[in-house]
Write a structure and sequence with these properties.
Layout: E1 3-7, H1 13-28, H2 34-46, E2 52-58, E3 61-73, E4 78-88, H3 97-112, E5 116-119, H4 126-134
Parallel strand pairs: 4-5
Antiparallel strand pairs: 1-2, 2-3, 3-4
InterPro entries: Acyl_CoA_acyltransferase, Bact_Acetyltransf, GNAT_dom
Keywords: Acyltransferase, Transferase
Organism: Dyella jiangningensis
C-alpha cells in the first residue's frame, strides 16, 4: 500500500500528542503528561521558527509522524535539521513509513539549504538504530548531555 507524506496541520495535534505519549513509553518507559504534550505540540504550530511536523498516511489514514527542529551551526554557516518525536503506529511498522518520512525531510532540507540532518536515538533501541543506518545515516562521535529545569 502506498505511503504518502504531508505537512501536519492543527487538527493533527491530538494524534501527535497521543503518539508522543506512546513513543516515550515504548522506548524509555517514561510517562509523559498528555496536557503538557498537547501544549508543546501546539506551540510548534504557534511559532513556525520552532520547526514543523510531517505526517505519513496509508490509504488516507495517519500512520506516523515526526518533528523537525533547527540547530544553527556556526562551523558550517547553516542549519542542521533535527528529526525528533518519531512515531509509527504498530500496524504500519516495517512498511516503509519512516523511510518515506525521512525521504521527505531530506528533500525539504536540501531545498531549504540545510547543511545536514541529525537525530538522536535511545541507546538500547537497536531496531531504530538499524533503520537509521539502513538509510545511510552514520553514528556520530558525540555524547549528549542535558540539564532539565523544574517547571
Amino acid at each position: 500500500m502506498t505511503i504518502t507524506t504531508r505537512l501536519a496541520v492543527r487538527s493533527d495535534v491530538s494524534s501527535i500528542a497521543r503518539w508522543n505519549v506512546a513513543m516515550a513509553w515504548e522506548t524509555e518507559h517514561k510517562a509523559l503528561d498528555p496536557a503538557v504534550l498537547e501544549r508543546g505540540v501546539t506551540a510548534v504550530f504557534d511559532e513556525p521558527r520552532r520547526g514543523f511536523y510531517l505526517m505519513a498516511e496509508r490509504a488516507g489514514e495517519p500512520v506516523g509522524c515526526l518533528l523537525v527542529t533547527y540547530e544553527w551551526s556556526d562551523w558550517r554557516a547553516g542549519d542542521f535539521w533535527w528529526i525528533q518525536s518519531v512515531y509509527v503506529v504498530e500496524s504500519a511498522r516495517r512498511e516503509g513509513v519512516f523511510r518515506r518520512l525521512y525521504e521527505a525531510v531530506q528533500q525539504r532540507a536540501k531545498e531549504a539549504g540545510a547543511v545536514g540532518i541529525r537525530l538522536y536515538v535511545e541507546t538500547e533501541n537497536e531496531r531504530a538504530q538499524r533503520t537509521y543506518a539502513g538509510l545511510g545515516m552514520e553514528r556520530c562521535h558525540y555524547f549528549m548531555y542535558e540539564t532539565e529545569f523544574a517547571r
